Amino acid sequence: MEISALYHNTRPEGELPVQETAAFDLLEELGIDYYRVTSEPADNMEKCAAVSEVLGVPICKNLFLCNRQKTQFYLLAMGPDKPFHTKDLSHQIGSARLSFAPEDALWELLHCTPGSATILGLMNDTEHRVRLLMEREIYEAEFISCHPCHCTSSLKLRTADVLEKLLPHTGHEITVVEFL
């Protein structure tokens, strides 16, 4: 997979998808420093592993989940090598029968497509219908990596900027979860 050089506070050249442009605009508006690489779509964890090497930080596995009734939605940011067991998570957040949310809900709530789910998508959840879940290891890391709402770019952000600038701006709180 071809991956660009590492860029600092520079968005990709050319016309970008609307949701990606909005993500870069928000980072600039909030004064959030970032490093970026561009690649072919990094829409699965195998492709993200190659991108992670260039970024120097593992790309989070971001899972968009819902309850059985599709009335509660969750964005889970976890380490790329951690196994995901719905039973472990369900117990921690008090929601039974978790599953992957439908693609149309991912687009409606976060303006992301499959493989692009990201914390930056919370800027589009103005009704706060998505609950952010973050694995403790990610929450405590110095950097977090994600896509800017489109999986042809990947970013490295200071976790402190996400916690202290991005999330207060979107109005989302974090529930820290743990996986063994």
Describe the structure.
This protein has 180 residues and is an alpha+beta fold. The chain is built from six helices and nine strands, in the order E-H-E-H-E-E-H-E-H-E-H-E-E-H-E. The strands form two sheets. Strands 5-3-4-6-9 form a five-stranded mixed β-sheet. Strands 1-2-8-7 form a four-stranded antiparallel β-sheet. The longest helix is centred in the first third of the chain and has 13 residues. The radius of gyration is 15 Å and the shape is globular.
Keywords, separated by commas or semicolons:
single chain; 180 residues; alpha+beta; 6 helices; 23% strand
Strand line-up of the largest beta sheet: 5-3-4-6-9
- The Cα radius of gyration reads 15 Å
- Beta fraction: 15-25%
Shape: globular
- Residue-averaged pLDDT: 94
Assembly form of the protein: single chain
Number of strands: 9
Q: What is the helix content?
A: 25-40%
Distance between the termini: 32 Å
- Count of helical segments? 6
Main β-sheet: number of strands, strand sense, barrel status? 5 strands, mixed
Order of helix and strand elements from N to C terminus: EHEHEEHEHEHEEHE
Low-confidence regions: none
Report the structural category: alpha+beta
Topology:
Layout: E1 7-8, H1 18-30, E2 34-38, H2 45-55, E3 61-66, E4 73-78, H3 86-93, E5 99-100, H4 103-110, E6 130-135, H5 136-140, E7 143-146, E8 153-158, H6 159-170, E9 174-177
Parallel strand pairs: 4-6, 6-9
Antiparallel strand pairs: 1-2, 2-8, 3-4, 3-5, 7-8
